[in-house]
Amino acid sequence: MNSTQQTNSQPSISPVIPFAATLFASATLMFVLQPMFGKILLPLLGGTPAVWNTCMVFYQTLLFLGYLYADWLSSRFGSQRQLQIHTALLIFSAIALPVALPADATPPTAGNPTLWLIWTLFLAIGLPFFVVSTTAPLLQKWFSHSGHHSSGDPYYLYAASNAGSLLALLSYPFLIEPNLGLTTQRLVWSGGYVGLCLLILVCGISFWRNQADKADDEVLADAGIEPPSTLQQLHWLALAFVPSSLLLGLTQFISTDIAAVPLLWIVPLTLYLLTFILVFSTWADRLRPWMLAAQPAVLTVFIAYSFINPATLPYWLDLILHLIAFFLAVMVCHGELAKSRPHPQYLTRFYLVMSFAGMLGGLFNTFVAPFVFNSVYEYPIMIVAALLLRPGFFDGKWFLQPIFPAVVLAVGLVVYFSSRELFDYLDLIGGALILLAGVSYALRHSPIALGSLTGVLLLFTLGLHSLASNILYQERSFFGVMSVRDTVIPDENQKPETVHELYHGTTKHGAQRLTPGNLTTPLTYYSKPGPIGQVFAEFDAENQHWNIGAVGLGAGALACYFKPGQHWTFYEIDPLVVEVAQNPKWFSYLSRCNPQAEMVVGDARLSLAKAADRSFDLLVMDAFSSDAVPTHLLTREALELYFAKLKDDGLLAFHITNRHLALKKVMADHVNQLHLEALLQEFKPETDVPLVLATDWVVIAKNPERLQRLQQSRLGHWQKLPLTFGLQPWTDDFTHIIGIWK
After folding, report:
1. Cα–Cα distance measured from residue 186 to residue 201, given in angstroms and rounded to the nearest whole number
2. Does residue 321 sit in the same domain as residue 420?
3. Is residue 8 included in any domain, yes or no?
4. Which of the two ends of the chain, N or C, has the fewest CB atoms closer than 10 A to its terminal CB?
5. What is d(CA 550, CA 652) in angstroms, rounded to the nearest whole number?
6. 201 and 54: one domain?
7. How far, in Å, CA of 578 to CA of 602, rounded?
8. Are 117 and 54 in contact (CB under 8 A)?
9. Long-range contacts of 566-571 (CB under 8 A, 24+ apart)
């Protein structure tokens, strides 16, 4: 099947070794660069998970262009000309070394920063990443002409490439990130890139010698193999598109609710790469039936608990269930993709279609979905699409498969539109949906029926949650999904009272009671009995003319601590949050308490850097992306910036409530290293007051005398921060969350 001629003399070293080593090194560099540069860019855009998803789109686009280049080069030119052109590209790409952000990298404060982010990535790492992207298809094509006994099916080298990717991803959070700062990482990566270029040249020379009998400008001969049909290429496209979109959808889910750091972004990407290693390995045929059987079995539990009734599972178990369901879906799609791979003559075409589909998946999640959907609906849509791509789509009487899902949909719609008291039957409807999720397993041999029924279940589930949440307003921006919900609570007299609540992702970011006597009462994490309320109460006698800065606006509850004579500045990265907080239809804290408050839109650190030094009496740090505090606001340099903007007797109040991370350890280390004084209160309400929540705050000052009033306060239980041992200080060059995981 190999179209090349065998060489007369056997090489002393198998050509597999340099080719496999180069592919391994290339993949390693590629997948170290991805989390490294994602982490470098995080501080510029508030730590939002959309930064990583946008980076993924850039990487997928460059990967497609690299594969397109490899296909063009290998199909149009002879061996010597290929080597000449690629060598010139390698030399030209060296002008981008060492990789670093452009000097004037400042994101826009208005509008969506996606295009700015992609342009910045292109300037910083575009050329080196493009070269690395060309390596896998080009070297496999070169190897197919090496005359080696395995060159007739060089796809197994793709497993070596993905093994390097997997090793790099696992090494980053556990070896590279804990031991090397970002500056050192950039320099080491640049040195590794030079080594990769040398390895590519070694492989190129080997390829050229094997093809020395061909003219320099001769196009490689056609092997007489039928090219893949358009239908087959569209099938490849679908099988690669859905896993790519699923990857970004799951990443959005994970990084919104834990922390926007590369450690957690790496988990789904690691599983994604592992599927490629397995489906292109010698175990693929044995694994395929097991994956096909496991997917619908896990799907039943996944739909029942992660979507229909997620509150019954602990968060970590729900996360594991999402990851298992994702892995099985991608294994099935990639398994079918590997099973239908073409003859090596069309290897670069195969990889080109794969990379194009991956790019389309990223573009769909990053550019299309946020403008079409007001929530992350692309994730459940792709779960259904993955089921439709199971083998056997047109087997048997395929046109009869959607009948049962259609009946379920029709019955559900009749119930929905005919019942005026649907809310009273939510538990019953939820039970019926769980029962139908179990029934779906019986349809495992019918992709259309299984996918359609799952789609119907997810449709009603999302509608059920929306109905139960009483969503009044929901919108999506680059920084996440913002929603306003209408909730009924009992008041002090146990009478029902309507409350508006603000959610970012799945985390409550503020609430307002709508009864006349409570319209200006700060609630949730900002309540008067809570730590921040105690701070304003203890300094009530001296704060009439304070200059106050608050990072993070939320619903605007903090504005109701305003006094005439004070000047307040709110720093908020998301323009949508400002729009919601200033709209009295949703929340009236700002309009009633402090309508003249100054609003500064943009990343807090970049905005605060422009403020006058020693100008603030109080800085309140309350920036969150769902439940995660952006890590760049927690570094030593960040604290140094805050105190540069505070007066000598100024106070820094830091909100550190978090379900998963013990942020007090980071704060304690900074306080110790910078010779500051701090008090911590882990507040738990003593009485059942509506919407007064448990919350953790740290107050920091330069002098211990400044905090004596709080320490002696009878309003709350303020205490010294706990001592920390063995925690490497968080800096702009180094952050690592494993040491502070709860």
Report:
1. 23
2. no
3. no
4. C
5. 10
6. yes
7. 11
8. yes
9. 567/598, 568/594, 568/597, 568/598, 569/597, 569/598, 569/599, 569/600, 569/611, 570/597, 570/598, 570/599, 570/600, 571/600, 571/602, 571/604, 571/607, 571/608
- Could you tell me the sign of the dihedral formed by the alpha carbons of 235, 241, 244, 246, in that order? negative
pTM of the model: 0.76
The CA angle 182-184-186, to the nearest 5 degrees, is 70
Query: Is the peptide bond preceding residue 98 cis, with omega within 30 degrees of 0?
Result: yes
Q: Which of 452, 469, 486 is the last residue of a domain?
A: 469
- pLDDT tens profile 292-350: 999 988 888 888 777 777 666 677 788 888 899 999 999 999 999 989 888 777 887 88
Collect the ranges in the chain with pLDDT lower than 70.
1-15, 43-50, 109-112, 146-156, 158-159, 211-225, 254-265, 310-313, 394-402, 404-409, 411-433, 491-494, 625-629, 742
pLDDT digit string (tens) for 412-461?
666 665 655 555 555 566 666 677 777 777 788 888 888 888 888 888 78
**pLDDT tens digit string along 18-31?**
888 898 889 899 88
CB-CB contact of 657 with 621 (8 Å): no
| 668 phi/psi in degrees, rounded to 5 | -60, -40
CATH, residue 554: 3.40.50.150
Cβ contact 481:376 at 8 Å = yes
- 513 lies in a domain? no
Q: Are residues 213 and 343 in the same domain?
A: yes
pLDDT of residue 436: 72
Q: Which residue reads 């039928």 in tokens?
A: 226
Q: Domain total for the chain?
A: 3
CA torsion sign, 443 to 447 to 449 to 454? positive
**Alpha-carbon gap, residue 694 to 447, rounded angstroms:** 47
Answer whether 358's CB lies under 8 Å from 52's CB.
no
